[in-house]
Amino acid sequence: DAGVIQSPRHEVTEMGQEVTLRCKPISGHDYLFWYRQTMMRGLELLIYFNNNVPIDDSGMPEDRFSAKMPNASFSTLKIQPSEPRDSAVYFCASSPRGEDTEAFFGQGTRLTVV
Amino acid sequence: AQSVAQPEDQVNVAEGNPLTVKCTYSVSGNPYLFWYVQYPNRGLQFLLKYITGDNLVKGSYGFEAEFNKSQTSFHLKKPSALVSDSALYFCAVSGGSYIPTFGRGTSLIVHP
Predict the structure, then answer these.
(1) Do the chains contact at B95 and A99, CB–CB below 8 Å?
(2) In chain A, which residue's Cα lies nearest the Cα of B102?
């Protein structure tokens, strides 16, 4: 397996524009996580899915953020409208099952909102 | 609630010397503990984990970690540091809830 695949790797957009980040998890993994990493706040869990169902989105900062997982092989994180404070590295990760298994991270999307 | 503390933002060590990156945790129930490494412009990579059994866990790249239940610690160690070990290291815990909780990370700098 190629691992967790995220696209794009880099995104630069203007404030107010819609941004969509994409993730393909490892086949067979039941859990998918979206994280945001910044210098100030470290690694924050935004939302996670189990078998394509969103379980906990309490980490999503505002209604401007939304995430979907229409099938087991694809997830999106959308920001609309984007703001400069959304600038960060966004990671997608997947894991095969429950709490005793490690997560496999994608390479991240570096988002810059100007 | 579960939490992880990495008390050092940065650890400096000379190449060839032993290294320790500290982690303490708080969780209700039995802890599952993990270490990850992040190289620049990359995602986190799994290094090792403690689930049950032997308190000394061995992982990738010569790293090991010791689970200490009485001190609620899970420190990462390596007998002889390499310059290429320089990276950001994250400790994580789950067990109280499925969602893994990550520490803020410790930057390891190995000097030649």
Answers:
(1) yes
(2) A43
Tens-place pLDDT, residues A60-71? 988 999 999 999
Q: Which of B41, B43, B49 is the closest to A105 by Cβ?
A: B43
Asked whether the predicted pLDDT for residue B96 surpasses 70, the reply is no
Taking the CA atoms of residue A80, residue A82, residue A86 and residue A91 in that order, the dihedral angle to the nearest 10 degrees is 50
Would residue B53 be called left, alpha or beta, if left means φ above 0 and alpha means ψ between -120 and 50 degrees? Answer: left
Q: Do B51 and A107 touch (CB under 8 A)?
A: no
Interchain contact, B42 vs A43, CB within 8 Å: no
* Tens digits of residue pLDDT in B76-95: 999 999 999 999 999 999 87
